[in-house]
Write a structure and sequence with these properties.
Layout: E1 10-16, H1 22-30, E2 37-39, E3 48-54, E4 58-64, H2 72-87, E5 91-96, H3 103-114, E6 119-123, H4 133-141, E7 145-148, H5 157-167, E8 188-192, H6 206-217, E9 221-225, H7 230-236, E10 243-246, H8 251-257, E11 264-266, H9 267-275, H10 278-286, E12 296-301, H11 312-325, E13 330-335, E14 348-351, H12 359-371, E15 376-378, H13 379-386, H14 390-398
Parallel strand pairs: 1-4, 1-5, 5-6, 6-7, 8-9, 8-10, 10-11, 12-13, 12-14, 14-15
Antiparallel strand pairs: 2-3, 3-4
Helix pairs in contact: 11-13
The structure holds iron/sulfur cluster (SF4).
Iron/sulfur cluster binds next to loops.
Length: 399
């Protein structure tokens, strides 16, 4: 089986006591239908990942975690590792054996509910004993989806798979629009694309190409200009454009050049709602006004690239942030596929535009930040906020 990029896999954690049958349950779900790729843990404290193609959902990773009742120093480390996996999970299966619910299991259920992680209570080992009525009543009382299975006999395993598919977060199933809902056939949309040192040679970048494509799909007209030519282009158009979309970095000049009666936004903002949740990123940006001396800020880029002298994440945003807030801030910049382990120490995360991430991965990062109580925003929204034009560029979405 080809390995899908990690970001494109649904993450499902199996949580429960030792010997609840978590590993057997994974084996029963994946069966012998396909080859299973198993990542043996790098250290004894890490949960073990098993990859599987759960159709029609697509690739998923099951995390077989340590028992929530694990004991001793090593046990505590294992439980910590389990909780870390939980924070980035899209779905949790809470596995309960024939001994039924106990205090620890109830506690973890409430924790998972609190973290707003979708979950299923899986009563396993029903070949030995069916669950007690009181446990089923408890599941009903808290509104939990639950199912009785036997990993050993295969009873209800197909139903469990169907329940997993049904419970998968909606962001996996949604068809998102980039700009299609903001425009109509016959509209003129002006796109402002700076061709500076940061622009790749001889081509446009993916977000620009995708936006043009969606404008064409909606029978509207795309006019593409550099920021220098914008004023001329607006003057020469016989019809008022329905929308101007600019690269965030040119927003200050562009907002001055575009008359107030023409709607304006940025590529980054379009992508904020396409890949993540616009409202959460806007909420995150509000934290900028509350920053204090000594606060830690995380600037997170989803991939590594050649660092330019006026790099947006390393130079421009930190400079604008310090100028805007007038505070002494500690700013860390990380790039790559994982968030730092110690997210809690940050007062704010400013994430890149995530053009290389799919929606699932961006939503996972967003959820992980919120579950750890760290507000998150992104480059485009932060830049517009720091340049004082956030309200204007959000207007097309809220009218
Ligand atoms: S994923 Fe982020 S860091 Fe990588 S190119 Fe896209 S916006 Fe830049």
């Amino acid at each position: 089986m080809a390995k899908a990029p990690r970001g494109e896999r649904l993450i499902i954690s199996l949580i429960g006591k030792r010997n609840a049958g978590k590993s057997s349950l994974i084996n029963a779900i994946v069966g012998q239908e396909i080859a299973i790729v198993s990542d043996t843990a790098g250290t004894t404290t890490d949960p073990v990942a098993k990859h599987y193609e759960l159709l029609p959902l697509g690739p998923v990773t099951f995390y077989d975690t340590a028992g929530i009742d694990d004991k001793g120093e090593l046990g505590e480390k294992r439980i910590k590792a389990t909780k870390k996996v939980l924070l980035k999970s899209d779905l949790a299966l809470i596995v309960i054996d024939e001994q039924g619910m106990d205090e620890r299991t109830e506690k973890i259920i409430y924790e998972i509910k609190e973290l707003k992680i979708p979950y299923i209570l899986v009563f396993n080992k029903t070949d030995i004993k069916e669950p007690d009525e009181k446990d089923i009543n408890f599941a009903d009382k808290i509104g939990a989806n639950h199912i009785c299975v036997s990993a050993k006999t295969g009873k209800n395993i197909d139903d469990l798979k169907n329940l997993i598919i049904k419970m998968a977060p909606t962001y996996l199933k949604e068809e998102r629009v980039l700009v299609g809902d903001l425009i109509k056939g016959g509209d003129i949309i002006v796109l402002v694309v700076p061709i500076d040192l940061a622009a790749p040679k001889g081509r446009l970048i993916l977000p620009q190409v995708q936006t043009i494509r969606e404008i064409l799909d909606n029978d509207a007209t795309a006019v593409v200009v550099k920021e220098r030519e914008l004023e001329d282009a607006l003057r020469n158009l016989k019809k008022k454009p329905a929308l101007v979309i600019t690269d965030s970095q040119a927003i200050l000049k562009v907002s001055a050049d575009v008359p107030e009666d023409i709607k304006l936004t940025t590529f980054s903002i379009l992508f904020s709602r396409y890949k993540g949740e616009l409202s959460e990123f806007v909420r995150g940006a509000k934290r900028i006004d509350e920053l204090k001396d000594g606060d830690n800020i995380l600037i997170s880029e989803a991939c590594s690239h050649h660092v330019q002298s006026d790099d947006i994440g390393r130079v421009k945003i930190p400079r604008w942030l310090l100028q805007y807030t007038g505070k002494e801030l500690d700013i860390d910049v990380v790039s790559g596929s994982d968030f730092p382990e110690d997210l809690e120490k940050y007062s704010l995360i400013i994430h890149c535009g995530a053009c290389m991430l799919n929606r699932m991965e961006m939503m996972r990062r967003l959820n992980e930040s919120l579950r750890r109580n760290v507000p998150i925003t992104n480059y485009g929204i932060a830049i517009s906020k720091l340049q004082g034009v956030l309200e204007r560029v959000l207007e097309p979405f809220f009218i």
